[in-house]
Every structure is written in structure tokens, then in C-alpha cells.
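Chapter summary example.
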Amino acid sequence: MEFDETESGESRYLMSTYSRPGDMILVSGDGCELTDHRGRTYLDCMSGIAVMALGHSDPEWVATVAAEAGRLVHVSNLYHSAPQVSLARELVERSFADKVFFCNSGTEANEAAFKLARKWAVNQGSADKTRVVAFEGGFHGRTIGALSMTHKPSIREPFEPLLEGVTFAPFNDAEAAQRAIDDKTAAVFVEPLQGEGGVRPVDPAFLKRVAELCRRHRALLVFDEVQCGLGRTGTLFAHEQLGVTPDLMTLAKPLAGGLPIGALLATEEVAMAFGPGDHGSTFAGGPLVCRAAEVVLRRLTPEFLAEVRALGDQLRESLEALKHPAIVEVRGLGLLVGVELDRPVAPVVEAARRRGLLVIPAGEQVVRFAPPLIISRAALLRAVRLFDESLAAADERSE
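The structure predicted for these 399 residues follows.
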């Protein structure tokens, strides 16, 4: 399909929920590079919004998916599935968790966590223990339950009234958290590293205080690691660097290397609250997607993760060395790095795209770097150089 046909067909047949560049269609990918319909290549430093951990067209992943597609793609959750059990075992053995529930996205994982927290409270004999605490800047999804815990007013307000009983507290403010968490709180949702909210790392002291408050008030501590988990920060899970263990954790984006999957991980005590019929999903945890996810997990070895940490250090140091007057702060962990500017970032993101670099905003004034975890040091240096040129180009256009 030619570009003009795709663009006109999109406006005719698709609901207008995304704003896309008007002069490109991405048609193929290889490693850390994407190619558009004109044959132009781009250095991918967004990896499908922190999804393509192994890059594009990874040979092992492709071979595994092709083999499973020829064997068994879908049977629903009405029957046993060996790949599902195998993936769940791997996640349990490499985490704090005892049990896993599979779904299809990060939003669904957070919805499941919300439901499990309320069912757990009921089972504890506390039917009035229904409140949830989340934090300013947090993003947990766009379905009604997940959206109710997502702070950004511009995506919440058109859909109000949302679920009652959700309280937002300032991120990294321990005193505010203490005022918000009480005996009526069923769960506290927090991202160890906020993604959409501006790539903001949690303060370890704040997180430890939140964990203490959860224990005091018998509330469940839920870590949303949909974006920051599974190697993105240089450890398998971001919270491993913080000295705090949750009761529940949600995962998604990179887990199956680009195929839709989400997962809710829980301790045995909490997981027991769900029984047959309490929750479900037609497509979740199918054989093909689970085999794909096993490839990703298998590759996230200690040696691989150590290299992610080293690459993250290089990226932050290179960005900090730019000393451009528009740069307010460089922050992040591993290969999830945000550059806060003193101005809107949209012109910089567009200038970068025109120079062959794909980055994404994380709020109006933060540029987010989330490249594939396999990116090379040379490619990172190239990305920083192109970003520097983009800052200068955006300055010129604004004059």
C-alpha cells in the first residue's frame, strides 16, 4: 500500500486517537534501526515505547515465534498450556512472587491488581477497605480502573466520573503519603521509576516509608513496573535497586518482545484471594506469546543487565556533557533516561526525527530515551550527537 493510500485510509477508516508524523510509514526494522517507506533509516531510541528490548527482528525471537505459530497459537484459558506454566515458573523463580496472572497489556495488569486488592480486602473481613492511593505523575493505563489511578488531568477529565476512592499524593513526599494511607486503604500503586510522568526515579527513603505505612495499615504495596521493569533499568526489576519488596507487581511492555502480554505477580497470601471465575481473559497467556516471552527472559542474564547499566551510565554522562542552556536536568536509570528542558520538547522531537533519531516525550518538557537494550555504545554516541543537533535546530526554528 502506497503512502498516500495509507494516509488517506487512516483518516477514513481509523478512529482519530493518535497524532502521527505526516510524511513517513515505518515498514521494517533490524536491531536498533527502523526503515520507512522511502528507504530512509532511523536510529530507534524509543523501541516502541520501551517494548522492543531485544531490538527488531531478533533472529532467536523470530525463529521461536515462527515455530510456535506452526504448532499452536491459541486455545483459550479453558485448557492447560505448557508454555504458560513454563513462563510463569521463570517469572516466579526470578522474582519475589509465588503466583502469576497473565493478561494482554500493562493496563490490564493494573486492572487485575486493582481487583485483586479489593478481593483480598474482602477476604480479610474488611469489605470497607476499598481505597487506593496513587501518586502525582503516575501513569497506570487508560481503562476506567487504571485511568482512575492515573494522575494526568488531560486524559482523566473527559471520562469523569471515574472510580471513587482513589487518592493522589505528591510523588516522593513521605509526609503526604502518611496523610493519604490509612486503615481504609486496600492498595498503594507506585512506579519505581515514573515513565510517562517525566522519567522520575522514586526516592528510596520515600519508598521505604510507603512500605512501612502499608504494613502498618495492612494495605498492599503494588509496584507498576510495566515500563521500568524487565531489564530496562539494568536489573531485572527496578525495585531490586531500592531495597523494598512489593506484594504485587505489574509487568508488560517488553515481556514478549513486541507481542501483546501483561502479567500480575503476587505473593501466595494475596494471590489466594482470586478463585475460579473471579478474573479472566480470552487471549491471555497463549502458547505463542508465552514462548516469545521466554526468549526475552532467557536473554536477560546478569551479564546482559550489567551491560545495560554501563550503557545507561554512558548515555546519562554523554547527555549531561552537552551543556545546552535548554537542558534543566538529565535523570533516569539504565536505558530509561529523561532530559528535562526549559521549554516544550515537541519541536526537538520533530527535529530529531528529521535527522534520523526517534525519541519520545515524557510530558511536555521531557525528552525520553528508551532504546532497545541491545544498543551499542557507538549507536548511543550517535544518538546523543543527533540529539545535540536537534536542540540547535529547534533553537534556529524558534528565532
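To summarize the output: The longest helix spans residues 377-398.
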